[in-house]
User: Fold this.
Amino acid sequence: MATPIQRCGTRRLGLCTHFAGEHYQEQMENLLNQETEQGSQPPTQLEITQQVLGTKPGYYRGLGYGPKPPQSSRTSKRVNQEVLEEVTQLREEVQELQNRKGEIEEVTQLREEVQEVRGIRDKMHQYRQIMEKM
Assistant:
């Protein structure tokens, strides 16, 4: 009988990592050989390994070790609420600025029209002076 932890010479079924206990290997093989419900996907090697061996706390696949992500708590809910309130306030400010922009565009257009009318009035005044001289 093998010792509880033995060195794998080969990667049987691709599930054995550097060191593995014989009973872990058997559990992995059993999970791999279990029939799945019709239409469902069989578990991946990663899922089987995580189910049998568990996961390392603080370790994230592809990212390495790092701080745990915050759990949903009252603090995070409060922060989320604050963020939502700030987003709402910023949206209101954006709407107000867009309204102001519209008003400024209207005033600018009116000024251009007034300038055009003044130009026409000045030309009419010049034509009247020319007509009076005749």
Summary: Strands lie at 5-7, 19-21, 59-60, 64-65. The chain has three helices and four strands.
